[in-house]
């Protein structure tokens, strides 16, 4: 089940979209140098002029860059990004086919695979685009600046910009001026034209700076948030088929060492200092109350493959188990009880499996001290990494412990009987 979800899940959709985008850009750049004077070619029974190959290469490069942006929209689980990718995948495949080279074949095949995988994950993309006031202001600023430059340049073309003939020329001058590229191929010989150009530089450069700030500020915040254990919503949205560890205690450390090599793990803990130490060691940590409903929602308990609860506080563990079971009735919940009498309580709270490490350890040590055989073999089976052997070993240990308790109870009863007869 895990392999299937990894191959067709939301994370796979984002990765495939990124790959298609990169491949589209690379294929377009490789074919963009095709001479427009090449002979006509036939594709699917239709004759196309030779320049279509160059046009397809150029537009394919642009489509690839758009797909790269759409991939980040998929990361945020935006429904608009899903629609955009489903529209762009057939376009990239068609552009690859029109380029008619062997380099285009991987693009066509990968576009088809990505179209199928992303299409299967429609339900995962349920968020609408929500722009902040800052983002809307930045977009409005750059759109207004380019409109000002384009319209102003076109209006002044007759007397002040003699090399500008069309709106495309005016937009070109506005864009290269605002981006500070400034090729110098379009200039004004008059004072009015130069004053307009100065105003255009101030307006467009400011708008570009505002957009760059809006783009890079969230990236910097994400790095700082990760260091402090305050994961961003984009990072949390990527979690899928992971193991959610509620709380951190002495019992949690060896569990993490076993889990991190086999699955994605997210730890929920309220201790910020502990969060910092765990983050430095490479663990993914969210600073939040493990038993809180909103915290578990942020940890995406709904899409988790398992929940592990193993702190030293059985009462708090029970609250975390109750919350997790309520939010995801189908998830597997395993817990460690610090006290033997709390095993049944944690099961009633909703845990599927509850193990008392202290009780099992004490049983193994006692059996070894009394000359019991096979204890080390049982431990090796537990540590083998084979789920079936480990499960059998745990059940065998529990059965032995239950038998030992029954035997001790029987001996206690016989002793009481003998004392009664002596009296």
UniProtKB/TrEMBL annotation:
Compositionally biased residues, Basic and acidic residues: 405-423
Residue segments, region Disordered: 382-423
InterPro entries: K_chnl_dom, NAD(P)-bd_dom_sf, RCK_N, Trk_Ktr_HKT_K-transport
Keyword annotations: Membrane, Transmembrane, Transmembrane helix
Highest rank taxon of the organism: Archaea
Recorded topology in the membrane: Multi-pass membrane protein
Localization per Swiss-Prot or TrEMBL: Cell membrane
SUPFAM superfamilies: NAD(P)-binding Rossmann-fold domains (SSF51735), Voltage-gated potassium channels (SSF81324)
RCK N-terminal domain: residues covered: 240-356
Pfam families named among the record's database cross-references: Ion_trans_2 (PF07885), TrkA_N (PF02254)
Protein name as annotated: NAD-binding protein
């Amino acid at each position: 089940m895990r392999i299937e979800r990894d191959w067709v899940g939301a994370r796979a959709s984002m990765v495939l979209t990124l790959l298609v985008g990169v491949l589209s850009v690379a294929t377009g750049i490789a074919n963009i140098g095709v001479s427009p004077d090449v002979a006509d070619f036939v594709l699917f029974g239709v004759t196309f002029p030779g320049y279509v190959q160059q046009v397809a290469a150029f537009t394919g490069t642009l489509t690839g860059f758009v797909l790269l942006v759409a991939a980040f929209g998929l990361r945020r689980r935006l429904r608009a990004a899903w629609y955009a990718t489903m529209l762009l995948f057939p376009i990239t495949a068609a552009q690859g086919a029109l380029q008619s080279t062997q380099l285009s074949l991987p693009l066509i095949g990968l576009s088809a695979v990505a179209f199928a995988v992303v299409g299967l994950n429609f339900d995962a993309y349920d968020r609408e685009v929500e722009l902040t006031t800052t983002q809307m202001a930045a977009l409005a600023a750059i759109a207004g600046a380019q409109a000002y430059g384009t319209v102003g340049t076109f209006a002044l073309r007759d007397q002040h910009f003699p090399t500008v003939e069309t709106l495309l020329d005016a937009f070109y001058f506005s864009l290269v001026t605002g981006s500070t590229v400034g090729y110098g191929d379009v200039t004004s010989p008059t004072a009015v034209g130069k004053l307009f150009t100065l105003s255009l530089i101030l307006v467009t450069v400011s708008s570009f700076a505002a957009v760059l700030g809006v783009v890079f500020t969230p990236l910097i915040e994400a790095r700082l948030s990760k260091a402090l254990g305050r994961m961003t919503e984009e990072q949390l949205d990527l979690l899928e088929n992971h193991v959610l560890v509620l709380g951190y205690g002495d019992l949690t450390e060896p569990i993490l060492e076993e889990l991190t090599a086999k699955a994605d793990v997210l730890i929920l803990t309220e201790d910020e200092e502990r969060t910092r130490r765990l983050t430095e060691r490479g663990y993914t940590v969210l600073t939040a109350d493990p038993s809180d409903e909103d915290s578990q929602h942020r940890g995406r308990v709904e899409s988790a493959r398992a929940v592990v609860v193993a702190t030293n506080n059985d009462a708090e563990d029970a609250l975390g188990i109750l919350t997790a079971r309520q939010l995801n009735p189908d998830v597997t919940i395993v817990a460690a009880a610090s006290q033997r009498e709390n095993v049944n309580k944690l099961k009633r709270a909703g845990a599927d499996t509850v193990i008392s490490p202290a009780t099992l350890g004490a049983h193994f040590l006692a059996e070894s001290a009394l000359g019991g055989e096979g204890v080390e073999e049982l431990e090796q089976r537990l540590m083998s990494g084979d789920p079936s052997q480990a499960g059998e070993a745990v059940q065998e240990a529990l059965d032995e412990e239950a038998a030992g308790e029954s035997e001790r109870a029987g001996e206690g009863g016989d002793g009481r009987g003998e004392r009664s007869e002596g009296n």
